[in-house]
Amino acid sequence: MTRLFLILALLAGPALADDDGQDRARRALQAGEILPLSDILAAAAAARPGRVIELELERDDGRWIYELELVTPEGRLYEMEVDAATATVLELEREEDD
Prior knowledge:
The protein is α+β, with helices and mostly antiparallel strands. The protein has helices at about 1-10, 15, 20-30, 35-45; strands at about 50-60, 65-70, 75-85, 90-95. It has one domain (about 1-95): Nuclear Transport Factor 2, Chain: A (Roll). It has four helices and four strands. A four-stranded antiparallel β-sheet has the order 1-2-3-4. The N and C termini lie far apart (about 35 Å). Mean pLDDT is about 85; it is low at about 1-15.
């Protein structure tokens, strides 16, 4: 799992690069509080195909939420929230063009 986070950190930049975020995610995964990142990414791709450009794991009202930013093949930018324990897409919003 560490290797996957490292690869994503290199692809996504500073949002995944901090060790605290990696450690927090690893502990939550080991405790069975969240699903593997591959499950989260599969659910995200099923809801809206695209390339994830930013990924962040946060605690919100007692549950783990992955916040993703992705770009579709057509070049549209979307933000998505996915429940990290169930891989349920909670929110999907298209970012408006400036």
